[in-house]
Amino acid sequence: MEEIVKVLSTEHLTHDVIRLVLEKPAGINFVPGQATEVAINKPEWKTKRRPFTFTSLTDDDFLEFVIKTYPSHNGVTNELLSIKPGDELIIRHIFGAIKYKGEGIFIAGGAGITPFIAILKELEKKNEIGNNKFIFANKARADIILEDKFNKLLGKNFINVLSEEMLPEYEHGYVSAELIKNNTDISTRYYYLCGPKPMMKAVEEQLSTLGIKPEFIVKESF
Predict the structure, then answer these.
(1) pLDDT for the residue 73
(2) Contact 137/198 with Cβ under 8 angstroms?
(3) What is the pLDDT of residues 20-56, one digit of tens each?
(4) How far apart are CA 48 and CA 59, in angstroms?
(5) Which of 12, 49, 89, 113 is 20 to 30 A (C-alpha) from 154?
């Protein structure tokens, strides 16, 4: 599959995170949590494909991506900062291992939030948020993506961990076995993980010390 789609709108969500809304090609289907390869439809960028997760839902009449940008890399995400409505992107095949299996704890680091945006949107739409919890690790409060939305949606079940800032009402440090254990209860069945590889490895080790079996860990790394 390869589709050329026009950009409908762009918006900054944080100092380095943007939301892109695109035209939706006919017949495209995906499961919340899945991703696609995206390239910019300009001669010098067409072959530079990067994976981004859909943050829209399958039955929306548009496509949406929430993308963390890295201006210092001078790569695709930096180029996306100058994208404007009417510009074109190329999307290719759809892939991804994360999908919702049942109530549990979502654990994300930074841009690893993106599969969970779509999954939690879908649960909200179905009135099935239940007792799902979300532990979100970032360096500082300014890095938290969609903080207001998830505070409203999850309340006390939205737990933020900041590694470089100490603030009231926020956990400080890293995602620990103790933090996971303190937020595990009778409704917790699955542990959903997405984030940078070092964080993923550390969290999987924490889950192992808690005796969580691999079949109850749903993960994606990038």
Answers:
(1) 80
(2) no
(3) 999 999 989 999 999 999 999 999 999 999 999 999 9
(4) 28
(5) 12
